[in-house]
Amino acid sequence: MSEKIDCAVIGAGVVGLAIAREFALAGRDVVILESENAIGTHTSARNSEVIHAGIYYETGSLKAQVCVAGRKALYRYCAERGVNHRRIGKIIVATDDTQRDGLRKHKRQAEINGVDDLRTVSRAELAELEPEVVGVEGFLSPSTGIIDSHGLMLAYLGDAENHGASLALNSPVTGGSVNHEEILLNIGGAEPMQLACRTVINTAGHGATAVSRAITGIPAATIPPNYYAIGHYYTLSGKSPFRRLVYPVGRQDWLGVHVTLDLNGRCRFGPDFDWVNTLDYRFDETREARFYEAIRRYYPGLSDGALQPAYTGIRPRITGKGEPAVDFMIQGPQDHGIPGMVNLYGIESPGLTSSMAIAAHVRTLLMA
Hints:
Blueprint: E1 2-10, H1 14-25, E2 30-33, E3 50-51, H2 62-81, E4 85-86, E5 90-94, H3 100-112, E6 119-122, H4 123-129, E7 137-141, E8 145-147, H5 149-162, E9 166-168, E10 173-178, E11 183-187, E12 193-202, H6 208-214, E13 215-216, E14 227-236, E15 245-248, E16 258-261, E17 267-270, E18 274-276, H7 288-295, E19 307-317, E20 329-331, H8 333-336, E21 341-345, H9 351-367
Parallel strand pairs: 1-2, 1-12, 2-9, 5-15, 10-13, 12-21
Antiparallel strand pairs: 3-8, 4-8, 5-7, 6-7, 10-11, 11-12, 14-17, 14-18, 14-19, 16-17, 20-21
Helix pairs in contact: 1-5, 1-9, 2-9
């Protein structure tokens, strides 16, 4: 069975749904193809649910651009659509004098990126703002927030469907080919079929590279490798002692075990960082001692037995162990030579925050 369609968005995570919404609102006839039996079951559901300010990303990077623009757009959207969120704020803290330079480097980078509301926090003020946090200096990011990620995805999907988009669950893309005027996609599932598409946007997350490799005609040299970086989260039993998010000074590829709060005020710690070979979400409870050690550097009052295993998340990485994390890779026709196609690779944090800006960027690539 074969059918002609206008626009296929592969992947119903938060970024895919934002893109589907963007194109549906622009008057395109959109079909969202999702291999799982529900939306947002991988990266979009297994993260810190943080609205990031745009602090850490390299000058001029796509991450810096879409995070700052996306954060502003996301706050407006959440207010308009009633998506549950809170502009709770975040403190980045140096726990000793050796971290002061790193702290100030983060602040300078954030200001270069256009984050213009940061404020230095002294040791005394830190003790007032977050009495349980121990540090020598910090800075406050008032525009960092938290969000109901599933509520956001439902809002994006609702907007897309209200403008004619349709969602096809259990519809994996198993292959395809590039022709002169269209892109053919082979769809598996209970009723296999072929779709002839005018536009294809591959935002399949962990599966994006596999989808691209399965489509004949996408130049192999443009498809990056795929790696899995796992992070564990623990919850804190009892009432949270924190009112804001708390982040230690991070390293180049990882921001450290930090404090996040959900919209009910529950406290989580994480993620840690390690490499795995497969998409395996099993929780490794042997990491508990390392969590206690890392958290007590800034929260020495953490009691023994207070941490409870929560969940894991896996970042879709396109660089591996020993290599620095790289920018988002979003390839349009000018990159791979295929009219009507955009491939998105390595869309990890701050993908949720950036989702609306990424969607606008993808649309621009297809208009160029």
